Amino acid sequence: MNNALDSIDLHLIRVLHTVLTESNVSRTALRLGTTQPAVSAALRRLRALTGDELLVRSGNAMVPTAFGASLVEPCACILREAQRLVDGVSNFDAMHSTRQFRLAAADYMDPAFLPQLISTLKREAPLCGVDVLPLTASLDYRHALAAGEIDAVLGNWLEPPQDLHLAPLLEDEIVCLVAADHPALRRGLDLAQYLQAEHVAPSPLRAAGEGVIDQHLHHLGLQRNIAVHCAFFNLIPGLVARSLLVLTTGRRFCQRYVDAGLSVRILPCPVPFPPLTYYLLWHARAHLDAAHRWLRAQVREAAAKAPG
Predict the structure, then answer these.
(1) Residue 227 belongs to some domain of the structure
(2) What domain range includes position 84?
(3) Burial class of residue 196 (count of CB atoms within 10 Å of its CB; 0-12, 13-18, 19+)
(4) Global pTM?
(5) Which of 52, 112, 202, 253 has its CA 20 to 30 A from that of 304?
(6) Cα separation of 98 and 35, whole Å?
(7) Is 200 exposed, middle or buried (0-12, 13-18, 19+ CB in 10 A)?
(8) Mean pLDDT by 10 residues, the chain (308 residues)
(9) Are residues 130 and 122 in contact, defined by beta-carbon separation less than 8 angstroms?
């Protein structure tokens, strides 16, 4: 036995709502961008389905029946909810949304990048909240993305994970940061001296394994002397300024501390490194979400505006 609801589609609801509010078949056709015969045919279907005339003549005008008038608001409600369904896929009202965005980010990125991003998010979506979580070895970011616990991950990988969506954000040159009175500034830093020097390195972001610098050195058959591991990347330049430690990382990160007046200097790295590339990662579950697409666009814009 057929369900009566199978005979009703959204277009029929639009015709019903418009013809009841306009009380005129010609104006209904004009508003819906269709023909008068098509509206008349839809109205005949609706009368057959409801068993009511819905619209009747009163003098020279047409007026809704009592039952027809009672359907105006339910039809409007159905159309509003249908629009919400469509908007959920295609639109995101950033100015009025109260969504909470959650990002996991490495703290060794360009220090200017995250402030630029947060500034943009709060300007364009003032009611939205933003949580920036540390990208650490204890965070299973793949699981967190799949579970919807975080929206996106920002970091760098020699070979980014292929099971996630990704977009490159920033590219950087690998350099060495040393104290302003480091002997290498006078004599230079060749490969042998680089490998023998005492290095400071961030704690690895994986529960087991090397960071990207040591991964690449390992691929070249080289090993440096790491004397200090530090879980707080932004403290490392201060350690470098007060010691003979060498930090190997991106130029963007190092340049901010040189420009800020810290007693550190940048040296070319004697090891040939590929460019350091930072990526935005996200899960397939959020790929088509309108709010997430908006967020990704803001991240890419902030990366494009970050000073080189």
Answers:
(1) yes
(2) 4-90
(3) exposed
(4) 0.67
(5) 202
(6) 42
(7) buried
(8) 66 91 91 90 91 90 92 89 66 88 86 87 93 86 93 89 91 96 94 97 67 91 95 92 96 93 97 92 92 93 81
(9) yes
